[in-house]
Protein: BHLH domain-containing protein
Amino acid sequence: MDLALSDTDTSSGFSARSDDENSRSPCATSPVMKKRRGRADGGPPVKRNRRVKANDRERNRMHSLNDALEILREVLPACPEETKMTKIETLRFAHNYIWALSETLRNADLEAERSFHRAEAPNPGSSSSEAWSCSSSSSSSSSSSSSSSSPVYCASSPGSPENYFQPQDAMFLRAFVPPVY
DNA sequence: TAGGCCATCTGGTCCT
DNA sequence: AGGACCAGATGGCCTA
Structure:
């Protein structure tokens, strides 16, 4: 007892999709008619017309969302080039990546601060060793994301980004992070 | 074949 | 009133 799917009104709302959809989603759907729910006749013509317009806007909205996601994918360092990250993977990976970048900056700041102190006081005595413990969170929070210095990471991520790149390995990022002055 | 991912439709809610 | 946003439902495609 499904709601009637009207295969007949293919003209409404589906016309704009086919070629557009082909160009947008290289991986998945063929431009074939998908599903249709609701009343077979679409209800009153006025309501139906409004629904069709709303569907069109919703489609465009999701397309722009996907475009933004695609831009994000291009910015991220993709390790296996041929595999496309899923949406959730992209978001999690971006999260990790941003964390690692900020961690790298933070470490660079700490290091700069240490070398500055070393230059001022050639015999620091005992105070120099603590700076290496980057979890000490002293006062040098230049731009750290204010939450915590060792975030709990997408711990529940079933999947993959962490397979490519562990957020804990901030040093890994030094490979593609420009030198911080 | 089951499960994951995705695109789309749809109705509800909030905002302008 | 109409648009934006959201979450649920549904069906197609792909892979293990």
In short: Residues 1-40, 124-181 of chain A have pLDDT under 50 and may be disordered. Residues 13-14, 17, 21, 25, 27-29, 34-38, 51, 54-55, 58-59, 62-63, 66, 86-88 of chain A lie near DNA strand B (CB under 10 Å from a C1').
